[in-house]
Sequence to fold (256 residues):
Amino acid sequence: MSLTDIRARWLFRCACCLAVWGCPLPAWGAEKVALYTSYTDPPYATREVGNLTTLLADWLTRHAEGRYEFVATQLPRRRMDLLLTKPDWDGVVAWGNPVWFNDEARQRYAWSQPYMQDSDLVVSRKDKPVEYETGGHTLIGLKLGGIIGHRYAEIEPLLNSGQIVRDDAVSGEQSLRKLQHGRVDFCFLQASALPYFRRTLPGFEEWARLAREPRARYQRYLFASKKQQALIHYLDLQLELLQKDPDWQAVLKPGR
Fold:
C-alpha cells in the first residue's frame, strides 16, 4: 500500500470519528480571522466558559462553510488601541460601537450592521443611592468606579473638569467590589453582564441598587480596517441570519 493510500485511509477514519462524535470537521483551507474582544469581564471575556465571544466565533465559523475560521482573541484595550493605529491591521473587533472608538461618522473603520441591543446601568449602594439623568449632573461630586481604557462619552466633560472623580480598575468586577466596600460611589454595568454578577458576587442583591434610568442605550457592531470592507460585507450577510436565530436571540437578550 502506498503512502498516499495510507494517508487517505487515515483521513477517512478521522472524518468518520469526528462525524460519530458530533464534532465539526476542521476547515483545512479556511482563512483564519481573529475575533477580538477587549472586555475583561463576562459575558465577553474569553477566559469564561461559554463566553459570547467564543460562541459568536464558533457560530460564524460553522456558517462560513470552510471559507473562514473565526478565532476568539482576548486583547487588552490599550493593545487594541495600538493595533487600531496601524492602517493595515487584520481581524475583526466584536461588541464595538462607533462612539467608543472615536468614529461616530464611521469613516475610520468598516462597520457592520448592529446585531445586539445593550445598555449601561448605573449601580450604587442601597445605603447611598444614586440616580442618573441625561447629562450626568446628578453624578457631580461623586466618584466613578471606571475601567482602564474605557471611554464614557456622555459624562466626559464632567470627568475632564474634575466635577466627577474617576477611580479606575482593570475590570468591571473589580470596580463593583470597590463599590461594595464604599471606595467609589457608583459604577456602570452592562445589562448583558448583569445576570453573571447577580450569580457570582456575594450578596449583590442585598447591597447593590440599579438606578431607574440607564446611562446609555446602545447597539453593538463588528468592525474591521477599511481594507477589509469585503469581509464586513460578508459578515453583514451572516448577521442577518444571526438576527433570525432564536437560540442566539435568547443568548443576546440583555439582563434588563
Summary: The longest strand covers residues 116-125. The radius of gyration is 21 Å. Residues 121 and 189 are 5 Å apart (CA to CA).
